[in-house]
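User:
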Amino acid sequence: MRDVAVVGFAQQQLPDFDGSPTCVEMLVPILAECYEQTGWTRRDVGFWCSGSSDYLAGRSFSFVQAVDAIGVTPPVNESHVEMDLAWAMYEAWIKIQTGEVDTALVYAFGKSSAGVLRRTLALQLDPYTMTPLWPDTVSLAGLQARAGIDAGVWDERAMAEVAQRSLTDAEQNEHSIRKGGSSVEELLARPMYADPLRKHDCAPVTDGVAALVLAAGDRAREVRDRPAWITGLSHFVDPSSLSNRDLTRSPSAADAAAAVDLTGVEVAELHAPFSHQELILRRELGLADDVRINPSGGALTSNPMFSGGGIRVGETARRIWSGEISKGVGHATSGAALQQNLLCVLDSSTGKDGL
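Assistant: Predicted structure:
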């Protein structure tokens, strides 16, 4: 297996939708930032992969327009996934492993303001038994949160503690849309949004884009003195039917954790769009008490569709580049109630754990 590292990361998130730019307008400065970080031009990129959704954009082959941000002359080696940036990264990692390319730039974009996100995401449910009922994502998360409370696995105070810590940490993150710590008691006094969820328990609806740069071996060392080497990648999926699984658990997250080495992880950036989902993930991943969770503020403070998971990887990589940590894990989820889970273990030294 080839040693592959994350060597570049850029993101943009919009605090409001007034005059929201197109995906190309958002991507151009992000790609330029990646070029600046690496010293590359587009000719140095061996493979491109994007993540987005035609359903979110409301038109077929919407990702083709985004290629304009790359430039189509000369032609590029390009692919697309109807998934989050983290899955585009996974495809690029595989492409590099084949030996066909040494470098890749992956990007993702999503304009949640183009429709009603809660309703649009109902399209990812079982098309025969669930989607015709149009259960929205927040309501389904509320059912999941209630199941955990009724089972005694967590309570509203534990959820508020997650939100309070996330909002406080977000004060140090210029990209966070929602920030500003408050007391747990004050958060618990706020009105319900989708019982037992309050608005701070739910990720904000955000337009945004993000990009990651991958490079193999010496190409990575040319860019970074301290590359964030990918030492573990794992992805598992639970049944799409919500009635076929215990919503207080996430077997796919536990399976993903079992396939990689999380020993010595100092930071875990968890893609938890709802406060109680962080509690589920922490238990399923078996993270030690001294592991710092979402120092960036996490998805509760900013969660652009199709970039939120990849941003968790980028935030972890950034802390390795700076020397703040030596090992961390970035997590991405997709589907309702933590149906799919991907883990990317990053280390300041190379290795092959879980690969």
